[in-house]
Amino acid sequence: MPTAAKLVASIAFALLAYFTSELVKPLLDEGTPTKWFSEGNTLIGLICGWKIMGPRGGEGTRAAIGVGLTTSAAMTAVAIFLHASIEMVKLSMRKSYDGPVEAVAAVFEISFEHALLIANPTILGTLAIGGIFCGFISNWAGRNWR
Description:
The protein is mainly alpha-helical. It has helices at 4-24, 37-53, 61-93, 100-118, 121-144. It has one domain.
């Protein structure tokens, strides 16, 4: 059932994902294709905001902080895993792996590399502060627009 908190949370986390994606782009290796990078992450933020933060909007300040941080972390984890999976498929099309087990293991290795890439204070701070802020906005919408 659509609610104001779900709508506001999905839009807020989509904006957070887009903004963070734009901060990550300069950290990527030169030549890395980023045509749909921000847009894909925005969609992930939209879905995570709707499914994770949205239903908990209006439950108070503690819930807003906790679920906002949880949503931000989940959004980041899903984005890292999705991009690592896409990279693994591209590498497997070039016959880089000997078998399917090696390809699946590579997803986790690539995910770890991507996590290390974004593990800088600017990105993590943006995700943390932005997650709390988006949680507050969703909480406000859930309380005021029932």
